[in-house]
Amino acid sequence: MASFCVRPNGVLQYDLCLYGRRFRETSGLRDTPENRRRIRRDLRRINAEIEMGTFDYAAWFPNSRKLAEAQRWLREQGSRAPDQRFGPYAWQWYQLHLGDWKESYARRVCGVLEGYLIPHFGEWPLDQITERAVRAFRHELLELTNARGERRLSNARINFILTPLAGVMRFAESELGIEHPMRQIRPLRDDRDDPMPLTAEQVHAFLAAVDPDYYLYFKLRFYTGLRSCEVDGLKVCYVDLERRQLRVREARVDGRQTTLKHRKTRRDIPLSPGLAAELDRHIRGRQGDDYVFTRSDGRPLHPSWVAEQVWKPTLKALGLAPRRVYQTRHTAAVLHLAAGENPLFVSRLLGHSSTKMLFERYAPFVANALGDDGSAFEAMMASQ
After folding, report:
1. Is-contact 57 46, C-beta < 8 A?
2. Which keywords does UniProt give here (predicted)?
């Protein structure tokens, strides 16, 4: 811990005990009541940082002749200190980074810390979290199953669980000199399901069968590829009927209105005359801050409620295979491309930064929609 003393020349001096070793630094201040109050304020902050394990010698004493020696000592001793267990350090890391994250992302990180990382690594000293330990932890996550014997966690979910762990250990490396154990660990292969877009005929059948209260909601999703968070958070003020545009500016995530995750998702979506007319009738009489789409009782929409109460029952009634609501977005992409729309336009419609994903993800489905199987070429050759 840290205290102060008065040197024989009447100058106040910091007296620090860091992991059993003493370091003294001059304050350059004369011994007066005002300067003593100032030193005590500094000492409260220094002792708090030492207690939390965040004390930075260079920040307090940048011109000290003992700086290199003190930093080396702190690196050597820091990882062996009782307060350098993963749990307390991870929460410090979390608090320090809150200002860098969106609120929704911070809640997800907090959930990972509370649900996975702290229960497993909470009492571990930071310098004992090795590559072997991390790989063993990941293997445990891969082995988790539900009551039906199916894997509980997807590869994408496991990768996300390990992301805060990597962040904590990277921070510990820069601050405490602890070797980062995850440099050689690559993310698991993305195991997302292939797109299951609906055909144009299936879209028409779905819109004819769905509850009329949600007809326009799903039509807009099939026609524009809006994500759940974007359409659920769409407000009347973002419907520009004069220019026939939807301005995508906000989203509704985890029951809260928020800004968009990425700048590239901020976009203006053109509306056909027919769709604009339907929206005009739908929002007539509403205020600018009202949601465009709500439940029948006026409450805001939530993706899981839409999926369970509207989407899945309609698919089942039509005899269509189960699929996620996100397939409305895949459907919009495939049908726009199959209709001959410019890929750059479709990419902007969906909020992608380039057309690369369109060709990588949707090319086979567009070929099927157009009947592109080489038969046109064979017919041409046969006619010669």
Report:
1. no
2. DNA integration, DNA recombination, DNA-binding
